[in-house]
Amino acid sequence: MNNSQSAITLDMRGEICPTPLIKAMEAMKGAEKGQSIDMITDFLPAILTVSNAALKEGWNINVELIAEKEWIVRLIPLANKT
């Protein structure tokens, strides 16, 4: 794995479900080994929906408030995730 590997960034501001979930699932399937995914959203329900799906797929989750009503949902692959 290349430690300088960039995260996949999904800017989902202005999008409501199911679009953030669909895009996150596509990104998880297409991510290279060790590559994380940063989803920016302003739709609170997307945090729960995407987080639940990612956990089921074996990803760790970190949610950070970056502005008023705006979050980064960081999906981090487990060490053994391919």
Can you tell me about this structure?
The structure is a single chain. This protein has 82 residues and is an alpha+beta fold. The protein has a single domain, classed as TusA-like domain (Translation Initiation Factor IF3), CATH 3.30.110. It is 30% helix and 32% strand. Strands 1-2-4-3 form a four-stranded mixed sheet, with helices on one face. Helix 1 packs parallel to helix 2. It starts with 7 loop residues before the first strand and ends in a 5-residue tail after the last strand. The relative contact order is 0.23. The model has no long low-confidence stretch (mean pLDDT 93).
Strand arrangement in the largest pleated sheet:
1-2-4-3
Q: What's the helix count?
A: 2
Give the overall average pLDDT. Answer: 93
Tell me the CATH architecture.
2-Layer Sandwich
Which topology does CATH recognise?
A: Translation Initiation Factor IF3
Strand content: 25-35%
Distance between the termini: 11 Å
Helix content: 25-40%
Main sheet properties: 4 strands, mixed
By oligomeric state, this entry counts as: single chain
Structural class determined from secondary elements: alpha+beta
CATH level-four homologous superfamily name: TusA-like domain
CATH class: Alpha Beta
How many strand units? 4
Query: Which stretches are low in confidence, meaning pLDDT under 50 for 5 or more residues running?
Result: none
Rg value:
12 Å
Output the helix-strand order. EHEHEE
Count of separate structural domains: 1
